Amino acid sequence: MSTEDLKELQHHFAFGENWADYARSIDALRLQEAVKGLLKLAEAADWQGRSVLDLGCGSGLHSLAALQLGVAAVHAIDIDPKSVATTRALLSEHQAEGPWRCETASVFALPAACQQAYDIVYSWGVLHHTGAMMEALRLAAQGVKPGGLFIFALYRKTRLCALWRLEKRWYSQASARAQARARRLYMGLAGWRLALRGDRLERFKEHYQSSRGMNFEHDVHDWLGGYPYESISPPQVEALMQKLGFEQVRRFVRPGSWGWGGSGCDEYVYRRRRSAA
User: Fold this and answer.
1) In terms of CB atoms within 10 Å, which end of the chain has fewer, N or C?
2) Contact (CB, 8 A) for 276 and 243
3) HEC profile of 28-48
4) pLDDT in tens, 233-262
């Protein structure tokens, strides 16, 4: 399958369905944790009064969290209409009169009005699923105003990424019953690995929820099925962002690993130089 084919929604995992199911569990606690997650990446003053592009809005949780932090406007977009509908419903419920808009769009076909239009472009765990990650990174970066922030998270490259890519391609096309068996196997192995370290899966799940307000079971489904799939190393990110006219503000990088249990996301915050074209 060509790269151009992989960019199309019909060749992607059904992220929108997963996010719609997850959104039913969003409550005040999850929203609070999502706000904390944004504040880890940028200070409160960086959000207040700023315009935000939520690129790959998913459930809409982090668009809502940004509104809670007092941003001037949120533009939430996603290639999957189900994610857009879920985000619109969530924001309508909690911020009906808020400064937001939501629409279906691909990073590969952003409107010209998005060029250098936002103080913050936020894209967490999205661009590695577009089918052309490096191109998607360049296009997403174009939305950032001079002096603005590009906040994103991408899968860390591991030695087993090629095997995980094959697994994800299978899972994304498998029956619901086969997917359920794969999830049980994955979570069983995760529990076994935790037990070897003296931990328990249930305790891990509780801690996981306190990270960005997410849910372990939904993220396992997302991980196993997240196709297309690409990954990248921190030096590769740095080289690209320097070339695009950005300087690093902060990053949260995971230790290198073989990737037996998968690849977690490294988080990056870059600022567009004011002198950049």
Assistant:
1) C
2) no
3) HHHHHHHHHHHHHHCCHHHHC
4) 999 999 999 999 999 999 999 887 899 889
Do the beta carbons of residue 3 and residue 162 sit within 8 Å?
A: no
Is there a cis peptide before residue 255, judged by omega within 30 degrees of 0?
A: no
Ranges of CATH 3.40.50.150 domains, the chain = 3-157+229-272
Over its C-alpha atoms, the chain yields an Rg (Å, rounded) of 18
Comparison of pLDDT for 236 and 97, the residue scoring more: 236
Q: How far apart are CA 122 and CA 96, in angstroms?
A: 22
Residue-wise pLDDT for 80-94, tens only, equals 999 999 999 999 999
Residues 6+ apart with CB under 8 A from 180: none
- Write down how long the chain is: 277
Cβ-based neighbours of 222, under 8 Å, separated by 6 or more:
13, 15, 18
- Give the integer Cα–Cα distance in Å for 128 and 140: 12
Within 8 A by CB and 6+ apart from 187, the residues are: 201, 217, 220
Tell me which H or E stretch contains 74.
Answer: strand 73-78
How far is the CA of 262 from the CAs of 20, 89, 217, 224, 249, in angstroms?
24, 32, 15, 9, 27
Tell me what pLDDT residue 212 has: 57
DSSP 80: S
Cα–Cα nearest to 69, from 89, 49, 87: 49
pTM above 0.90, yes or no: yes
Give the separation between CA 136 and CA 27, rounded to whole angstroms. Answer: 32
| Joined tokens for residue 217 | 């079971």
Range 3-157+229-272 classified under CATH 3.40.50.150: yes
What is the Cα–Cα distance from 234 to 242, expressed in whole angstroms? 12
